Amino acid sequence: MSVQLPPCPYLPAPRAGLDWRGLHIFRDEHRGADFYEACLEYGHSLWQRGLAARAMLCLDRAFAAELSGAEPILRKWPLPYAAVVWFLGYTPPTVFLGNPRVHFQHYADRMNDPRREQRAWRAWACWALTRVARPEFPADPRHAVREHSVEEIAAGLREHGFPGETELWQKVLAASTS
What DSSP designation does 1 have? Predict the structure, then answer.
């Protein structure tokens, strides 16, 4: 049974018929602004088709795009912290989402290059958003990792993220708690 989910206001509207080939074309190319936009669009397509867990993984890929922070696409479609919270809040109980808290915890702790620190702090930022937006998700008791505080995550994003990224994340975090 197919589930249709509502459009996410934080992602570009997907073109009809979009599939995995939209990202596959970037496998041997620089994964910059075009890749970032393709990840957002394809993630939105997966989301609207009821594939919430796969859509969330697409946002991971968007966070990993090779961007400087000055690209025009980021003014139109900022890093998808708000989309992560949207997915968390609008995924019906009948749609598979997995456990995003565990996913982001594992992802952050096992990150590798390129831009390991930047990507790890973004994963921790998404982990913190998940803890606030969906506190019922448990941590993985078998994964011994030091969980970072909001202050540590903000400092990590400030050091390794884009100018203004920490403030963007903090704004989404604050909106998630209200």
Answer: -
pLDDT digits (tens, 9 = 90+) for 96-148: 999 999 999 999 998 888 899 999 999 999 999 999 999 999 998 888 888 99
Specify the pTM.
0.93
pLDDT in tens, 83-100: 999 999 999 999 999 999
CA distances in angstroms from 67 to 12, 18, 57, 91, listed in the order given: 18, 23, 18, 29
Sorted by where each begins, the domain ranges of the chain are 21-177
- Any idea of the CA torsion for 64, 23, 72, 133, to the nearest 10 degrees? -50
